[in-house]
């Protein structure tokens, strides 16, 4: 059996997390559509919260795709921000559903899906327990993968500046740093193709 490279391991782990996130998004979309066509009118805050979660997932997916295609540091930041916002959205929505006094255990899902969920407090707790650690793991994986690729926000390598020989001008030091960065990028490019 072939062993996976570090990049393939990150990709596989992240794909599993993204698929779980997609599953949550599909469930939220399903409940949202059912709530819009249900007999009872759903609470507006629930609709806003569910739409927000779907938009955050789409934003995260686009930002991560841009990161994968272009190795862009800004895309890493946006993917992380969207994931943090997803954590907050799931947490606030779950706590609000649990705290809501409106419940009716005998109500059917097709009649009022939102009230059905509100009447079963274990559902939002279960989603929070499963997906908040998943989102936290996604943040960790994105940042580790970006660090593995050598993507950082700065244009300069401060370690190269501090180790540069004295007596050189700033421009000479900058040229040395740029040469080192080009060398590192070539090595990284060669490692990707091995």
Describe the overall structure.
By secondary structure, the chain is an all-alpha fold. It folds into two domains: about 5-155; about 155-194, no CATH class. The chain contains seven helices and no strands. The protein has helices spanning about 5-35, 45-70, 75-100, 115-120, 120-150, 160-165, 170-194. Helix 1 (about 5-35) packs antiparallel against helix 2. The longest helix has about 30 residues, at about 5-35. It is elongated and about 75 Å long. Keywords: Membrane, Transmembrane, Transmembrane helix.
List the SSEs and their pairings:
Blueprint (H helix, E strand, L loop, with lengths): L5 H31 L7 H27 L2 H27 L13 H6 L3 H28 L8 H6 L6 H24 L1
Helix pairs in contact: 1-2, 1-5, 2-3, 3-5
List keywords for this structure.
transmembrane; single chain; membrane; mainly alpha; 194 residues; transmembrane helix
**What structural class is derived from the secondary structure elements?**
mainly alpha
Q: Roughly how many Å apart are the termini?
A: 18 Å
Name the helix and strand elements from N-terminus to C-terminus, one letter apiece. Answer: HHHHHHH
The pLDDT mean sits at: 82
- Structurally, the number of domains stands at 2
The biggest beta sheet is recorded as: none
Transmembrane segments: 12-33, 45-70, 77-99, 122-142
Keywords: Membrane, Transmembrane, Transmembrane helix
